[in-house]
Amino acid sequence: MTITSARPKSRTDSTPAAQAAGKRFYTPYSFWFYLPTALLYSVLFLIPTFASFYYSLTRWTLFDSTFIGLDNFVMFFQEPALVKGFTNTLVFAVVTSGSKVVLGLLLAVLLTSRIIGRGYLRSVVFFPVLVSSIGVGLTFQVLMNPERGLINGALGVIGIDGPGWLTDPSWALMSIALIDVWKGVGLATLIYIAGIVSIPREYMEAARVDGAGSWESFRRIVLPLCKPATVTVIILSLIGGLRSFELIWATTRGGPGFTSDVIASVIYKQYQAGFYGLSTAGNVILFLVVTAIVLPLNWFLNRREVDL
Amino acid sequence: MSTAELVNHKPGRNYLLSAIAIVSSVVVFVIPFVFIVLTAVKDRQQSADLDFAWPHQFRIVQNFVEVLEARDYMLVIAFINSTILTVASVTGMVVLAAMAGFVLQRRKSRWNPFINFLVLSGLIIPPAVVPTIWVLQQLGLFRTMPGLILIEIAFGLSFCILLFRAFVATIPRELDEAAIIDGAGPLRLFFRVIFPLLRSVIITVVVVQSVNVFNDFVNPLYFLPGDQNATVQLTLYNFQSQFSTQYNLLFMNILLITIPPLIMFLFFNRRIVAGMTSGAIKG
Amino acid sequence: MTFRPGTRGPAVLAVCSLALTACSAGSLGSSDDSGGGGSIEITYLIGNQEQDLKEAQQLSKDFTAKNPGITINLETRPSGSEGDNIVKTRLSTGDMTDVFAYNTGSLFQAIAPDKNLTSINDEPYIGDLDENFRKTVTSGDKVYGVPSGGFMGGAVLYSIPVYTKLGLQVPKTWAEFIANNAKIKAAGGGVAPVIQTYGETWTSQLFVLGDFHNVAAAEPDFADKYTKNQAKYASSPAALKGFEHTQQVHDLGYQNKDFASAKLPDGLKMLATGKGAHYPILSGVVNDMIATNPNAAKDVGLFALPGDDATKNGLTVWTPGGIYIPNTTTGDKLEAAKKFLGFVASPDGCKSLASAGVPTGPYAVKGCELPADVPQAIKDMQPYLDKEGGSSLALEFLSPVKGPSLEQITVEVGSGIRKAKDGAARYDEDVKKQAQQLGLAGW
């Protein structure tokens, strides 16, 4: 919802209110309103962030720091786990946000149709969003237990030998992505529902009068008019996916070995190990990666929308 | 299939589709929660089987009491702490972000791109933990509840400002003008005229952020260490090692800390959609 | 270099059974002066493992009983590397509790003891500390900590019923160990020859870390060279063995079927119920095992990780954790904290510890004896300790160099994701960061 609305709707710059105020330049939109926010944000977020840019160039033991230039960054890119973590991060973000777009849209269409138990279904799909990642992670760790877990137990009944969801190197990352989608699809669905219910009824009526089939109206009306919702879902879940950490930590801690490591968990491991400078360098890298992906994408998606 | 319903408003409901939807929702979304509940009321031995069996004996009260009593009622203390933290920081976020979002939307200046950039970075940049601790220490706020509250506010502001800014755009400027002509100053304009109109987006912000803060795990771990300060997510984490063979208690704990979001949800279920619809998307 | 309590063992026993009173008098001595006045409260930070907590509760209770003016409040932190972080953060921000428990050895060196801790060099009980232990809590020429428990062995716990049933002998070499595994597997009955529990990654490291006695036996100067960046796991044939063993157990299919997801309690249960025959692990877990499976006290034994040479076979030993005072503790609280350390480093302290649970191994304070009814696995440690050259300290107590990712690497090697040689090379890379962070010469 965030970035979509950022699209500039440049209204009159000199407000009528300012004119109404007469003699001297007056605006009711006082800059003082920014003050508490600015203060808090600068002190607790900007200053530490800038400090971290410096510390990323040091070998830092928390007790003292030695300036070592770009060594941390060099070392970070020599770290084999990072290469793995890097691709994992991208795969994870793309898979989760892609699934959330597709599933979210499908569920939203379903949940805005005349279906029995619609209220129940909406609630049940959305509720996991509200449960803590740690709780969800611990629960699924048990459900996905390869020998005794409920999921493989159920698969066993229908004759499928389920994989070691979180313990098999080739499955671990995808299993976490699955949990992430399970937990997060409700939010995507909600955003899409909001988009769909705001489509004026007349459009549908008109389409029906014109003899458009249901697929046709979906493609011609629902899909384009849900564009803002799609942009929101993509951007939000990409940011979430790229920074994703808690769920991975609660389920596999990047394991087995390094197979489900993402940038955020690599950073955290360096941090835990006491390599504060190195970890902070990782923070800076993550920041650059997220910015490099999200900002152009945001610009691109919103640009397309204006063209439409 | 479903689009047909949406688009054509055919009379009658699609029973087959409804049945499929309900059955799969039960399998995918309900069973995990039932599993949590069942495991939470089992005895220790049975819970270790990790299966979906009906409990041999219901130990709701015993498990509940055991979890509460663990570590000198740590969970009770944690619930109090989490409540204070959530209420205070969400209140702060709403007021500060609404003010900032209001001015940001209304007043166009050459600073706006820069401010927008800062707001966006707040959403993207992963916070740097240790320098933040250092700053808090300088302010004498490290390991204090006010310190953690300010942290939560600072980290949550960006998201709220974006929502508020989007919503303020839907409020006609004519309202502002009318109020100004009536002689309202900036503060009165905002708090008496605009703020009440923000109700639906405020509810969205409150729900989203209180769930975020309540479920937050990393920030309390670093900025408010110590058992007497524990928040609910930390208890889960602490109990994970202590209850490593007592899945019933671990799940009872998961169950208990899921109840507040559940209540939140039951209260605001419809409002969340309303807030999203009116504020965020149409922006 | 080599850990030989045996050489001193009898002497210590003799001295201490005689001087038991003297020892405790020494530590009590510090408590009669100045203690009297108003009540003092000090806070003690410990890991949140159930056993740590029990012991700390017992210690503080018994301490307060002896020193009525002082009460100790406990505070817990997560254990493992998350806990490391909290300790470092709190020390660096001057916000540490009055007393805290933390690791000895390389992790202890990483918290900059000279800058952050109060030395206990002048305390009367300093001479009562085991010399091997003292080395691991010394930085420069100052001693900083007292032991929070007993020594631990990194060894193989084995199921005695399985051994008796199949008529097996305790192996002295790796070849014998593998032969035993083959027999156990051939005997069937669902008994896993080797229990591995990668659901808790730290448990995967024992084939490597617990093998250090054998490394030291083959290359006595390995630890020194290792610190100086002259010896590497990948290039030292003896050190590489640990990784190779990890891989071999996987390749031969000797692991339990659920090795990838099983956790420590699962492993202990398997061992105690005879569903698994061998479990390479730290002897510190014995207490937990017996708490849930009382029969394991006599059904589970212990032997050192076998190497190539039967004559040099011996036990790799971990020193206990330490209890330290940060230099932010001052005044009355400092006095009280020192008294508490004195109590812990006295036979009364050991008795208090022993009453809180099964010891993990021999104590590191003169005058402390193991209770007579210790479990078989702990008893089995004693012969190694008594024998000259029968035990060595683990590498992490001899060298400050220890990489943070070993547990992930051994999980990879033990799961067939990575080959032994490759894993060892990877670990050598991992270690480099740590050495540079510590500012060691030669890296």
From TrEMBL, chain A:
Q: Where is the ABC transmembrane type-1 domain?
A: 86-297
| Record-linked InterPro entries | ABC_transporter_permease, MetI-like, MetI-like_sf
Record keywords: Ribonucleoprotein included? no
User: How does the protein associate with the membrane?
Assistant: Multi-pass membrane protein
ATP-binding as UniProt keyword: no
Q: Signal sequence: where? A: none
Q: Kindly state which keywords UniProt assigns to this record, in alphabetical order.
A: Cell membrane, Membrane, Transmembrane, Transmembrane helix, Transport
Report the transmembrane regions from the record. 31-55, 90-112, 124-144, 171-200, 221-242, 275-301
- Where does this protein reside within or beyond the cell? Cell membrane
**Main subcellular localization, coarse class?**
membrane
> Coiled coil located at which positions?
none
Query: What GO cellular-component annotations does this UniProt entry give?
Result: plasma membrane
One Pfam family name is BPD_transp_1
BP terms from Gene Ontology = transmembrane transport
- Cite the PANTHER family for this sequence: ABC TRANSPORTER PERMEASE PROTEIN, INNER MEMBRANE ABC TRANSPORTER PERMEASE PROTEIN YCJO
UniProt record similarity statement: Belongs to the binding-protein-dependent transport system permease family.
Protein name, UniProt field? Sugar ABC transporter permease
Please tell me the species this chain comes from. Answer: Kribbella turkmenica
From TrEMBL, chain B:
Sequence ranges assigned to domain ABC transmembrane type-1 in this UniProt record: 79-268
> Origin, by domain of life?
Bacteria
Keywords attached to this Swiss-Prot or TrEMBL record, sorted alphabetically, are: Cell membrane, Membrane, Transmembrane, Transmembrane helix, Transport
User: Which Pfam families does the protein's record reference?
Assistant: BPD_transp_1
* Membrane topology per record: Multi-pass membrane protein
Supply the InterPro entries for this chain. MetI-like, MetI-like_sf
What subcellular compartments does it reside in?
Answer: Cell membrane
Can you supply a Gene Ontology BP term from the record?
transmembrane transport
Q: Transmembrane stretches, by residue range?
A: 15-41, 73-102, 114-136, 148-168, 189-211, 247-268
Q: Which GO terms describe its cellular component?
A: plasma membrane
Homology family: Belongs to the binding-protein-dependent transport system permease family.
**Would you tell me the protein name for this molecule?**
Carbohydrate ABC transporter permease
From TrEMBL, chain C:
Q: Which is one Pfam family of this protein? A: SBP_bac_1
Q: Which InterPro entries match?
A: Bact_solute-bd_prot1, SBP
Signal peptide start-end: 1-24
Membrane-spanning residues? none
UniProt keywords, alphabetically: Signal
Q: Which domain of life is it from?
A: Bacteria
| Protein's UniProt keywords contain Signal | yes
Q: What is this protein called?
A: Carbohydrate ABC transporter substrate-binding protein
Native species of this protein?
Kribbella turkmenica
Phylogenetic lineage: Bacteria, Bacillati, Actinomycetota, Actinomycetes, Propionibacteriales
